[in-house]
Amino acid sequence: MINPASLRPVDLRAAALQLLQQNGFDPVFPAEVDLQLSQIIKSPPAATIDSNVRDLRSLLWSSIDNDTSRDLDQIEVAASLPDGQIKVWVAIADVDVAVPKGSPIDRHASRETTTVYTGVETFPMLPEKLSTDLTSLEEGEDRLSIVLEFVVGPDGSVNSPNIYRAVVRNQAQLAYPSVGAWLENAGPAPAKIAASADLQSQLKLQYAAARSLRAERYRRGALNIETIEVHPVMVNDRVTGVEKQEQNAATELIEDFMIAANEVVARILSDRQVPSLRRVVKTPKRWDRIVEIAATDGVHLPADPDSKALNDFLVKRKAADPDHFADLSLAVIKLMGPGEYVVQRPGEPEQGHFGLAVDDYTHSTAPNRRFADLVSQRLVKAVLASRPAPYTDGELDSIAQNCTLKADSARKVEREVSKRIAAVAMSGKVGEVFDAIVTGVTPKGTFVRTLQPHVEGLLVHGNSGVDVGDRVRVKLISTDVQRGYIDFEKI
Length: 491
Hints:
single chain, 491 residues, 5-stranded mixed sheet
C-alpha cells in the first residue's frame, strides 16, 4: 500500500543536502574559498608555453563524457604507428596550477575529497567556476594540462610511457550515447563527427586501441562486468520515472584509456621511487558465494580467489544470457566489496586491483572531481620539476583514509537519494509484479533490484533461504517517498 503521508511533495534537492551533511560532508563553500575564487577569476592561470610546457593545440583532441557534463577532466587523441601500433595521448586538466596545496580551496577539497552526483543535484568538490570553466578542458579553450603518452601494441601491451606538461585545446566535446551508437553502427554520426572525416578516422583509431587494451586486460584476468546506471527522468523539476544508462562502445573506450593512463602514472611514480596513492580491491569479500553462483550454472571456480577463472565464467554467461548479464555483474560487484585507497611506498610489494587485473593502478585522471587525483597530479608535477614530493608518508596515509571514508559516504548518499527518486517513480505501481535479483543480504534485511525498471527495495516477505545473485519474482506492496522505502514480497 501507499502511505498517504509519504505522498507529500518531497524536496529531493533539500533531502540530498541534508543527507550529505549527515554523512560528514560540508558542501557549502566557506567565505575564504569565495575570496580565493574571486582572485583566480581576476587573474586566471595563463596557458603559457615555455621550455617546460609543450604546445599540443594542433592535435585533434576530443572529449567524450555524459551529455550534461561540464567538468571535463580529460581529452584524448591517437596516431597510427608502424607495425600496427597506436600512439595515444591523454591530457588531464592541470587543476593544481589554479589550486595550490594548502590554499583555502585545497583545504576544502581535502575535507570533501569528491564531487557527489545525486541525480537531482551535483555537489562539486571544487567551486563550479573552476571545475566547469577555468580548469575544465572545454571545447575551443586553451588549457594547461598533464599529458600521459603511451604506445598500444597490437597485443594490447602498453609501451613507451611518457608524461609532461602541455597546452591543449579540445576540438570536439562529444557525448557517450551518440558516439557509442555510432561506433557500434547502431545510430547516425553526431553532427560534429559527421562534419569531419578526420574526426571520424580519429575516433575509430582510438576505438581500435581501446579494444586492444581491453582484450589484453581480459587475458590477464580483468573482470568483464557490465554495469547499469539509473538516472531520474525529470519534467518541470519533478521525477516522472527512472531510466537506465548502459555501457556502450564510447564508455568502454574512455574506461580503457583511463585505466591505461592511470597505470602509466603509477609506473612512472614507482620508477622514480615516489610514494603514491593507489585504489585497490585486494580480494573479494565473499568469494565463497561467487563460487556458489557459478556452480548453479555448472561452472566450478577454484576455492581461492582467481580473477582469470572468474572472468572466464563471466564471459561465458554474457554469451549465454546477455539479457541478465548486468544483474549477474551487479551480484559479483556486491560480493567483491568496495575498493579502498592505500599508500604504495617504493620497494613494497604492489597492491593489485583484483577487478582490473592490474598491479599498478592509481587515480589521476579526474582532478576536478576527486582529491586523490589532485594529489597524484602534484606528485607527478614534482617529479617533472625534479622537486621533492609535496606530501609526507604520514600525510598520504591520512589522505588515503579520508578519501576511502568519503568515497564510501558519497556512495551512501547517492544510494539514499536514488532510493527516494525510485520511490517517487514506483509510487503508482503498487500491486504490480516484477522479475528481480537479490542484491544484498544484511542484518538490516534482504534487498532486491527489479530488472525493469532498475530499482532496489526491501524484500519484507519471503526472504528465507535467498542469497545474493538469486533470481526471484516479487510484488510491490508499499512505497514511502519521504524515507525512500520500497517494499516487496516474494511470490
